C-alpha cells in the first residue's frame, strides 16, 4: 500500500509509505484524503517521514486539503520527512504554512494542548477588569 490511514480518537493519521511521492501518486493521494474528509474528520496528521522526495504536485494535494479543512474549522499537521528532502529549500519554505512535528505522538499531543478557559474564569477576569 502506498498510503494507509488510521484514527487516533478524533484525528485521522494518513501515512505516506512511498519514498518518492510524485505527480503519479498525487491523484490517488487526493482520493485517499477525500475519503477521510467524507467521514467528517476535522483533525488530520499526514506522515511524510518515509519520503525522501516529494513532487510539487503532491505537495499541492496537501495544500488543497489544508484549505478545505480550514473552511470547515479543521486543521492539518505534518510529520516531517527524516531524510534528504531537508536540503530542498522550496520544500522547506512550503512546510512553513503547516505545524510540523518529528513524530505522530508529538502531533497527536499538540491537538490535546488546545486549551479553552472555563466560562466562569472568563467572567471573573472581566469583572476584575471592570472593577479596576
What would the average pLDDT be, to the nearest integer? 83
The Rg value, from CA coordinates, equals: 18 Å
Helical stretch count? 5
Straight-line distance between termini: 62 Å
Largest beta sheet: what is the strand line-up? 1-2-4-6-7
Architecture overview:
This protein is of the alpha/beta class and 132 residues long. The chain has one domain (3-131): STAS domain (Transcription Regulator spoIIAA), CATH 3.30.750.24. It has helices at residues 23-37, 56-71, 89-95, 104-112, 119-131; strands at residues 3-8, 11-16, 20-21, 43-47, 53-54, 75-79, 99-101. β1 (3-8) and β2 form a beta hairpin. α1 (23-37) runs parallel beside α2. The longest helix has 16 residues, at 56-71. The protein is globular, with a radius of gyration of 18 Å. Mean pLDDT is 83; it is low at 115-132.
What's the layout of helices and strands?
Elements: E1 3-8, E2 11-16, E3 20-21, H1 23-37, E4 43-47, E5 53-54, H2 56-71, E6 75-79, H3 89-95, E7 99-101, H4 104-112, H5 119-131
Parallel strand pairs: 2-4, 3-5, 4-6, 6-7
Antiparallel strand pairs: 1-2
Helix pairs in contact: 1-2
Amino acid at each position: 500500500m502506498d498510503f494507509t490511514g488510521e484514527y487516533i480518537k478524533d484525528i485521522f493519521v494518513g501515512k505516506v509509505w512511498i519514498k518518492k511521492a510524485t505527480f503519479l501518486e498525487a491523484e490517488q493521494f487526493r482520493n485517499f484524503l477525500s475519503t477521510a474528509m467524507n467521514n467528517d474528520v476535522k483533525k488530520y496528521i499526514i506522515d511524510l517521514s518515509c519520503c525522501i522526495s516529494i513532487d510539487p504536485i503532491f505537495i499541492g494535494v496537501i495544500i488543497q486539503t489544508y484549505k478545505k479543512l480550514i473552511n470547515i474549522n479543521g486543521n492539518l499537521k505534518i510529520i516531517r520527512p527524516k531524510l534528504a528532502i531537508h536540503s530542498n529549500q522550496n520544500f522547506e519554505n512550503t512546510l512553513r504554512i503547516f505545524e510540523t512535528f518529528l513524530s505522530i505522538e508529538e502531533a497527536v499531543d499538540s491537538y490535546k494542548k488546545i486549551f479553552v478557559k472555563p466560562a466562569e474564569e472568563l467572567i471573573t477576569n472581566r469583572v476584575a477588569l471592570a472593577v479596576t
